[in-house]
Amino acid sequence: MLLKFAFPVVLSGAFFGLPIAGLPMTELQALNRELGRLCSQPPREALSVCRIHARLVGSL
């Protein structure tokens, strides 16, 4: 089941092992918002991306 996500993907101290200071937080938040919109009613081609997004958000 896919859920809507409005939370920033990056809330912890690291993202895929990279320090947060080196990542553009506003771009990551924008990406998370767009993925949340896409995954609220995803086309078939986006299902795997939405599953990955759900796992990332769920792991925080």
Architecture overview:
With 60 residues, the chain is mainly alpha-helical. The protein is built from two helices and two strands, in the order E-E-H-H. Strands 1-2 form a two-stranded antiparallel sheet. A hairpin with a 2-residue loop joins strand 1 and strand 2 (18-19). Mean pLDDT is 74; it is low at 1-15.
Which descriptors would you attach to this protein?
disordered N terminus; 60 residues; single chain; 2 helices
The fraction of residues assigned to DSSP E strands is 5-15%
Poorly predicted sequence stretches spanning 5 or more consecutive residues:
1-15
What is the distance, rounded to the nearest whole angstrom, between the alpha carbons of the first and last residues? Answer: 18 Å
What is the count of β-strands?
A: 2
Question: What's the story with the biggest beta sheet?
Answer: 2 strands, antiparallel
- Element order: H for helix, E for strand: EEHH
In one word, what is the shape?
globular
- Rg from Cα: 12 Å
Helix content: 40-55%
